[in-house]
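Hey team,

Filing this mostly as a record. A colleague (T.K.) asked me to run one chain through the structure pipeline before their review meeting, and I want the input and output archived in the tracker in case anyone asks later how it was produced. No errors, nothing strange. Just documentation.

Input sequence:
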Amino acid sequence: MAILSYNEIVQKKVIVYNNEPYEVLSSHVFRMQQRKPVNQTKLRHMVSGRVLEISFHQNENAEEADMGRMEATYLYTTKGQSWFSEKGNPKNRFFFEEEVVHERVQWLVQNMEVEVLLYNEQPINLKIPIKIDLKVTDAPPAVKGDTATGGNKLVTLESGATILTPLFINPDDILRINTDTGEYVERVSKS
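Output structure:
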């Protein structure tokens, strides 16, 4: 594990802060009048998602976290736990508390491949593709002339998530979804 000086703590790095892994969301090195330079950062806790604003001064440094990756398969979510198994080794099962990973799990269907982030060889979080194609399971019919609401309707996807889509979307359509924003991107195929 590398030791990073205050100005090497930059966006997308994962550091150890208070013995916990944090991802650097943003960093800005600046100098106020006659003072020494400071790196103002925003850090997101890799497990809880909590965001902190921390200033690193010129004489401070941080340890770069030793992160590993593992291919895994999403199994199911029940009783507040989302269960996964290591790809190629279905006996190695593990879970995340659902409130920690809900923003990502809501886009997953059973047996979908995901990437799990490891810290000290323990699963701490998961990474999913930015765009995922999902099938529409329920969509109310479009009413002609119903554009007063902006021409959108709420549809349910095969993963159970609901999103706003244009009026022309029907059940069994395959949609591309942006998992970062939770928004409809395009219709991939018609029913």
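Quick notes for T.K.: Residues 67-127 form a domain with the OB fold (Dihydrolipoamide Acetyltransferase, E2P) fold (CATH 2.40.50.140). The chain has one helix and 16 strands.
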